[in-house]
Amino acid sequence: MDEPGRYVSHDAIAKDAELRSRSSDAVKVYICMIRNAMQVAGYSPHMIETGRRSYRVRKKDMEVLMEFLINR
Q1: 14: number of CA atoms within 13 Å, CB side?
Q2: Residue 64, Cα to own-chain centre: how many angstroms?
Q3: pTM (two decimals)
Q4: How far apart are CA 57 and CA 26, in angstroms?
Q5: Which residues on neighbouring strands pair with residue 48, listed in sequence order?
Q6: Percent of the chain having pLDDT more than 70?
Q7: Are the C-beta atoms of 47 and 35 separated by less than 8 Å?
Q8: How far apart are CA 38 and CA 32, in angstroms?
Q9: What is the per-residue pLDDT for 9?
Q10: Quick one: average pLDDT of 35-51?
Q11: CA angle 35–38–42, rounded 5-degree value
């Protein structure tokens, strides 16, 4: 989230989140859980975009995503 618009690899996400498992499957599960929570709260889960073994948040969606995270 430090660099909106840039794709971040599964490995980098796992490392930054201090996940015990660096498996891309673990990252996928957590992203899925975040997207589901966003949808339940009325936010678009499409703010988190999927790339090749990576994810990103576009600059235009950053403020709304931060609102969601702060209000959790």
Answers
A1: 16
A2: 13
A3: 0.83
A4: 19
A5: 57
A6: 99
A7: no
A8: 10
A9: 93
A10: 94
A11: 140
In the DSSP assignment, the letter for residue 45 is: G
Res 22: pLDDT: 66
Whose tokens are 């209000």? That residue is 71
What are the extents of the domains in the chain?
8-70
* Separation of alpha carbons 21 and 27, rounded Å: 9
Identify the CA nearest to 48 among candidates 16, 20, 10, 19: 10
Structure-token pair, residue 67: 């609102």
Instruction: Count the Cβ atoms, other than its own, within 10 Å of residue 10.
Output: 20
With beta carbons less than 8 A apart as the criterion, state whether 9 and 17 touch.
no
Q: Is 47 helix (H, G, I), strand (E, B) or coil?
A: helix
What contacts 62, CB < 8 A, 6 or more positions away? Answer: 1, 4
